[in-house]
Design a protein that fits this description.
The chain is globular and about 65 Å long. It has 24 helices and no strands. By secondary structure, it is an all-alpha fold.
Length: about 475
Amino acid sequence: MVKSNHKGGLPSPIASAIPIIYLITSLVIMLCTKGTDAISEYSQLILLSAAFLAFCISRIFYPCRWNMLKIGIYKSAKQILPAVPILLLIAMVSATWMYGGIVPSLIYYGLEFINPSTFLVITCLVCSVISVLTGSSWTTCATIGIAFMGIGTIMGYNEAWIAGAVISGAYFGDKMSPLSDTTVLAASTTGVKLFDHIKYLFITTVPAMTIAFIVYAILGYSSDAVGATDNKELTIHLTNTFAISPWLLLAPIITCALIVMRVNVLITLAISTILGIIGIIAFEPQLLSILSQDSNPFNAILGVLLTNTSIDTHNDLLNEFVFTGGVEGMMNTIYLILSAMTFGGVMLGTGMLSSITRSCLKGIKKTSAAVTTTVGSGLFMNSCTGDQYLSIIVTANLYKKLYKKLNLEPKLLGRSIEDSVSVTSVLIPWNSCGITQSTVLGVATLSYLPFCVFNYMCPIMSILISILGYKISANTRTNE
């Protein structure tokens, strides 16, 4: 936590809320006038201007020390900057897996074996399994998630529905897997043994995922869109453009195996990119001349990795889907993440986050109030810091003393943080997770948000179960 770093103390909660109010108001106006797709275009300016407003308020009315402002920005940068090379590699994986025939093969076999009525349930289930095995929501969305987006689009599903099912499944593992960095971080920062933490998560997670499956089943069986597209015609165009082969399925299998073995994520993504390049050379040589004007294979592959790439499949729907952005297409996402990092760093360094969150702790005496406030603070931190890791650390440190004072078990704090931070970061348009998944899946954050049933049911279940008092007991051990 950022301690009092101002001559007159922390900024008042009202003054601290001004940049947040400005940010939300600006975004609402932008959404009403420009639509959800404008998030990626205008959010950088809004976030940076909100950061500047916070800085001006703090310097003029509550003069802060420069070194504390630097510390706040450093903390934010320390958590967010490592995501930049990961994002660049994800862009490369997405592009090479598309033109290496890996994603087209997954789509082809998916269309062959998946029943359209159960598609959303299967999507959520498979992404859940993959994310639990790998512990990575980002990798799940960037690999199998993209394939499901293609399958569902061809079946005639709304892209927002598909993205919601993919994200619900992917973040199930992000929350529950012992291999997940957020799960480990939440357990360690609250002082709870990892598997005790995961076991306690089941109480809120199982009902949330059950509701998600029910909703996706209802959507699947009641949707009029299913079958609206001629799958047979699309698969013909798919096979005419790409060499479909079961051998190409080795790439996602190898990727999952590397993650399960805890190989460094950068190395894993780099190997996945190489597998995609091998796919282009070995299985899709006919595309090399199409992708490069001078028929140079090296230039063709370099173009796929770094720039916007498209080919004509003689089908408008497929043409739109096989378009990839490479590194160039990911740059706007990176700019937005850096803007969110700046805003989060200034809010931390000026003490405004501390001021707002501390004011929320006053007068809390009941378990349900503690959990509700923790959940609200987790959502607030996700919105202000732009990063789930930083949000977990700050929220845990903020509420440790309160839970100890109320004689509540640390694992309740850990669960409340997971229910509010780990799974909701992807629902915030300017959070690094929301920005990334919106870019990777090609669906605006606010478009897929209503269909991420698991993600928003988790905080609801956390509050509801705390009100009921189910499986909540006094802290009888010092180390859970």
